[in-house]
Amino acid sequence: MKAFMLVLKQVPTMKSAKTGSEEKSAEDVPFEAAPVDAPIDFSNVVIEPLFETEVDFDTFSKSDFRAVKVKACEAVKKSKKLLQFTLDDGTGTDRTILSGIHDFYEPETLVGKTLIAITNLPPRKMMGIDSCGMLLSAVHKEGEEEKLHLLMVDPHIPAGAKLY
Asked: What predicted TM-score, i.e. pTM, was given to this entire model?
């Protein structure tokens, strides 16, 4: 009999991109036991091909990747997809980033999470609001359904920690 360790993880409320209905509620399923060594079936997953063009190290190193803590998150009025994040980026001044991920997450489930952002992009106005950066997500397809997973990291990482 193979022994494995169980890890408890909080399950944010996620919505199905197809139906828009919730798949899991954080209140109904506050914690989910996941075996560390449990196999995950990726046989039905389709990912985008890698870029063929290379980026030199100097260009890459100009991107400022930082850990950010979600202080508040809300749906943007008159938008079906946009969420407005108020983030602690370690500077002492709140940072606003908008992200089109409302098909996949309910805003209240993201408060308190530690995410990864690119912080040195020029502000981009969306729905009249300046978005000052970009949150990183992983995207793939399972069959015909697009899946998106916002990158969440260890909550012990402080706001503003630089990623290399």
From this structure: 0.76
